[in-house]
Amino acid sequence: MSKKISVLAIAFILAAAISFGATKTYQVTGPVLEVTAASITVQKGSEKWEIARDAGTKITGDLKVGSKVTIEYRMTATSVTVKEAAKAAPKKK
């Protein structure tokens, strides 16, 4: 019985890891304009990109203003609100 539970637990962990890894990643490269505990702002062309970060963000090297960085990030929905379609107005005769 214990073996079956262990195999099931391992299968669940692998399925979770695969689904987590399936999230598409993106990246932005450029010089750092600002660093805070909650975000990193990067200049990309004429645009400023502000990317959120938290305690789990892995940083390799000395992150500071002026450093050239490449940031990998994911876009994940935090909420979805579905709006009902507007009803068509009655046709005039």
Outline:
The protein has 93 residues and is an alpha+beta fold. The protein has one helix at residues 2-21; strands spanning 25-35, 39-44, 47-52, 68-74. The radius of gyration is 22 Å and the shape is flat.
List the helices and strands and how they pair.
Blueprint: H1 2-21, E1 25-35, E2 39-44, E3 47-52, E4 68-74
Antiparallel strand pairs: 1-2, 1-4, 2-3
Describe this structure in words.
This protein is α+β, with helices and mostly antiparallel strands. The protein has a domain of 53 residues: SH3 type barrels. Helices cover 22% and strands 32% of the residues. It has one helix and four strands, in the order αββββ. Strands 3-2-1-4 form a four-stranded antiparallel beta sheet, with no helix packed on it. The longest helix is centred in the first third of the chain and has 20 residues. The chain is flat and about 70 Å long. The model has no long low-confidence stretch (mean pLDDT 85).
Strand ordering within the main sheet: 3-2-1-4
What is the helix tally?
1
**Low-pLDDT windows of residues:** none
**Structural class, judged by helices and strands?**
alpha+beta
What is the number of strand segments?
A: 4
Q: Sum up the overall morphology in one term.
A: flat
Instruction: Assign the CATH topology of the domain at 24-76.
Output: SH3 type barrels
End-to-end gap:
74 Å
